[in-house]
Amino acid sequence: MAMFQGGIKAAAKMLAGLSKAAREKVLETISKKDPQMAEALHKSMYTFDDLQYLTPMMLIELLRSVKVADMGLALRIAAPALKEHVLKNTPRVMRQEIEEILMGPPQLASKVEEAQERIMAIVREKIDKGQLIINKDSSETLV
Question: Cα angle at 16 between 53 and 122, to 5 degrees?
C-alpha cells in the first residue's frame, strides 16, 4: 500500500470536504485502529482562521456559545481577515469587550492558544451537530 504523502493536514482537509455521514464513518474506522490519529484528524479538520468563512449569523451564534474573553484572546494571533470579519459582524457592546481584550496587555502565547482551543472545541461540536457550516468555497451559496 502506498504511503499517503500529504500528512494529517491534507487528510483532515479531505475529511472536512466529505458529507457529515461519510466523515463520521471514516473517522470511526480510523478510530478503531488508531484513536489518537482519529482525534488528531478531527482537531485538524478546521482551524481557528477558518472561522472567517462563517456567515455573520453563524458567527453571532458562535459568539453566544463562547466566552467573549476567549474570543478576544484568541484573535490576538488570528489572520487579519478573521479579526476584521469578527469585529465587523459583532454587536457593538460585545465588539468593545473583544477589542479591550485584543488591545490589552500582552498575554502568554500558551494562554492565547488555550483560548483558541476552547473555542475550536465548541466549533467542532457545533459542526458535528450541523449548527455551524464552514464554507470555504465562496462560489457555493448557503441556503
Answer: 65
Domain boundary assignment for the chain: 7-44, 48-128
Q: Give yes or no for a contact between 26 and 18, defined as CB atoms under 8 angstroms apart.
A: yes
* pTM of the model as a whole: 0.76
Coil, strand or helix at 54: coil
Give the 3-state secondary structure of residue 78: coil
Q: Which residues contact 46 (CB under 8 A, 6 or more apart)?
A: 16, 120, 123, 124, 127, 134
Fold of 7-44: 1.20.5
d(CA 21, CA 98): 36
Stronger pLDDT, 74 or 136, i.e. the higher one: 74
Query: For 15-50, how does the pLDDT look when each residue is reduced to its tens digit (9 = 90+)?
Result: 777 676 777 788 788 888 888 888 887 777 788 989
Q: What is the CATH number of domain 48-128?
A: 1.10.220.30
- C-alpha dihedral (47, 52, 53, 57), degrees to nearest 10: 120
48-128: same fold as 7-44? no
